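Journal club prep, notes for RB
We'll compare a predicted complex against what the paper describes. Inputs for the nickel (II) ion case:
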Amino acid sequence: MALRDVLKMGDPRLLEPARPVADFASLELTQLLVDMHDTMRALDGAGLAAPQIGVGLQVVIFGVSANPRYPDAEEVPYTVLINPQLTPLSDAMEAGWEGCLSVPGMRGLVPRHTDLRYRGFDPAGQPIDRSVSGFHARVVQHEVDHLHGILYPMRIRDLRDFGFTDTLFPGQNLQDD
Ligand code: NI
C-alpha cells in the first residue's frame, strides 16, 4: 500500500497539461496505478488523475461502487483510462454538484455533457471505447479535465453555486471526491 499526497488547488502542477503514456508495459506505470488506486480508496474518492499526485501523465482512474447509504447513487465500474479522448454525443448539458480531492471540503455546481463517448487504453494497452451518460459521463469529464490542467471550480458558471460541503449539505456527511 503506497499512499501519495494529493496536491491541492493552488499548486501550479495541477494547471499543467499531462503527457501521453508511451510505454504501457513499464514498471513505473504499474507502480503508478497501484499508488493511485490505494490513494483514491484511502480517501474514499470517486476518481483520481495522475497530475493530482504530481505525475504529469495522461492516466485517470475512477469508480463508484454500490453504497447502502446512497441507494440512488449510480454505480460506475472501476476503470483505468490512459490517453483518453472524449467526444460529446449530443448538445445536452446538465448541471451537477462536484467535489474534488484537490479542493477538499467544497462542492460546486458544474455543467457537463450529458452523453459522452470516451476512448483510450487500459493498462495492458488494449483499447477502451464506451458510450455513457449521466453520472458516469460526469466523472469521466471531471477526471480528464485534470489532464488539461482544469479544475472544476474553473467551470462553475455562477460562483454563488460554490461553497463548503458541510454548509451546502448539512448533516449529509459527504466525502470529498
Ligand atoms: Ni478532481
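Talking point for the session: The chain has a mean pLDDT of 94.
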